[in-house]
Design brief:
Helix content of chain B: 25-40%
Structural class of chain B: alpha+beta
Radius of gyration of chain A: 22 Å
Shape of chain A: globular
Distance between the termini of chain B: 69 Å
Oligomer: heterodimer
Largest interface: A-B, 47 and 35 residues
Largest sheet of chain A: 9 strands, mixed
Strand order of the largest sheet of chain B: 2-1-7-6
Number of helices of chain B: 3
Distance between the termini of chain A: 64 Å
Shape of chain B: elongated
Radius of gyration of chain B: 23 Å
Strand order of the largest sheet of chain A: 1-2-6-7-10-13-14-15-17
Chain lengths: ~325, ~120
């Protein structure tokens, strides 16, 4: 009898080994002026909740919606905050402070002046930029006991961290629902949840600026992977290319040797803010910042060198003529 | 009697194991090996094509309430050739497989994805 039970257990084991890995369930959501691809393994029910989180995040923080928190703050100059909103604004201010304004949540008037919000692109005059620059500066945003306020003309935009923050919320929802394996592409921001169903890390490619393949592939588990670069959103005028990432200090599009910056970490919003900030800084300052603040990043320069944080060196494999150097 | 029952169990398990092995081998040889590309509008698949089976270049028009995108499909790859959207980002994206990431037309809620990819996501 005992032998019979043993044999049945063996048989069940063999059959289980033959079973396929958990099914992937994917949903595409158009939000935040981009497309989100949400893939969860083993549960289709979670997708409704994840989509609601995406839509709710957009409704709360969109700069173009008059009814959003940001819309109300920009119109009225002040806005009452819920605890979660205040925490997010405080984080955004912290990122601005630590990067000395390389990431700045008040850059919106400049973005509008260049036409990146409406795609009616134009090069503002130096005089126009000089008028706008005093309105840019994160120090002007005041947070006080559940109330946010900004001086007249100063405008807040959380678009620089909203997708990363959304990734954090999606990951938390998966944890609440027991989903241990998922990958989200939030308009180019990648958020991984756990590892792949077979236990191996996710393979996250870094897009090349030339759109001819990948810079390389990163093995990632349970982290956000966020890339900033001006190679996708730009316009050209009189033979000059103007990228959409603006230097908050000068008002002009960033021009340096960096082509893209990818930041990897457990907090998507921080990765989002730092990716922009490092791009603004340029390669030397960015390398120093990463070392000083233990930021895990991949800095791609125009000579196809990928400066990789030591902690990521083994998990990143460059493609083609890209070569990696430890930053 | 007991020995006979044991051998019945052994035979049963051995049979199952062999069946599993055969199924695995059959799946391996007949698994899909093409390069499937899917065209989605609002998350619904509206067209699919095995790019590895394409012999001659052709165009395929996707027209929805949002507008029209003309896909140019060649052996092994495809791209958006024309679109009546306002930004034409989808056209500028170039080739699906050469570029290595989904083609997206935001104004038309259109996404073109390649099913066979050696990566799980593309950060950009």
């Amino acid at each position: 009898m005992a032998i019979g039970v043993l044999i049945v257990m063996l048989a069940v084991g063999v059959l289980c080994a033959c079973q396929a890995s958990p099914a992937a369930y994917t949903r595409t959501v158009f939000a935040m002026d981009t497309v989100f691809t949400l893939t969860a393994y083993g549960s289709s029910e979670v997708l409704d909740a994840l989509q609601s989180i995406v839509e709710d995040t957009e409704a709360r923080y969109s700069v173009t919606r008059a009814t959003s928190l940001v819309g109300r703050l920009n119109q009225a100059g002040q806005c009452a905050l819920e605890e979660e909103d205040e925490a997010l604004l405080r984080r955004a201010l912290d990122y601005a402070a630590i990067t000395e304004g390389a990431f700045d949540l008040t850059v919106y008037p400049l973005v509008r002046a260049w036409g990146f919000t409406t795609e009616q692109y134009r090069v503002p005059t130096a005089a126009a930029l000089a008028e706008i620059l005093p309105l840019v500066g994160y120090e002007q945003v005041q947070l006080d006991a559940g109330l946010a306020s900004v001086p007249h003309g100063v405008q807040v935009d959380l678009g620089g961290i909203a997708k990363g923050y959304c990734g954090e919320l999606l990951r938390a929802e998966c944890a609440r629902r027991g989903v241990t394996s998922a990958v989200f592409n939030l308009g180019g921001n990648v958020q991984t949840v756990g590892a792949k169903p077979d236990g191996s890390p996710w393979r996250v490619a870094i897009q090349s600026a030339e759109n001819t393949g990948y810079v390389g592939v990163l093995s990632a588990t349970d982290v956000a992977v966020v890339t900033s670069g001006a190679y996708e959103r730009y316009f050209e005028q009189d033979g000059v290319r103007y990228g959409h990432i603006l230097d908050p200090h000068t008002g002009y599009p960033v021009v340096n040797e960096l082509v893209s910056v990818t930041v990897v970490g457990s907090e998507g919003a921080q990765c989002d803010a730092y990716a922009t900030a490092l791009y603004v800084m340029g390669v030397d300052e960015a390398r120093a910042f990463c070392r000083a603040h233990d930021v895990q990043a991949l800095l791609v320069d125009d000579a196809h060198t990928v400066w990789v944080s030591a902690a990521l060196a083994d998990s990143f494999q460059p493609h083609g003529d890209y070569r990696k150097e430890v930053l | 009697m007991s020995k006979v029952r044991t051998w019945v169990w052994v035979a049963l398990v051995a049979g199952l194991a062999v069946l599993c092995a055969v199924l695995c081998v059959v799946w391996w040889f007949f698994r899909p090996t093409g390069t499937l590309a899917y065209v989605y509008v609002d998350g619904q698949c509206v067209y699919s094509v095995d790019l590895s089976a394409v012999q001659e270049p052709y165009t395929y028009e996707v027209t929805t309430d949002y507008g029209t995108n003309v896909l140019y499909i060649v052996p092994g790859d495809m791209r958006v050739e024309e679109a009546d959207c306002h930004d034409h980002t989808c056209v500028r994206q170039g080739w699906l497989r050469q570029g290595g990431m989904d083609l997206v037309c935001l104004p038309h809620h259109l996404v073109v994805q390649c099913a066979q990819s050696d990566v799980d996501a593309v950060a950009r």
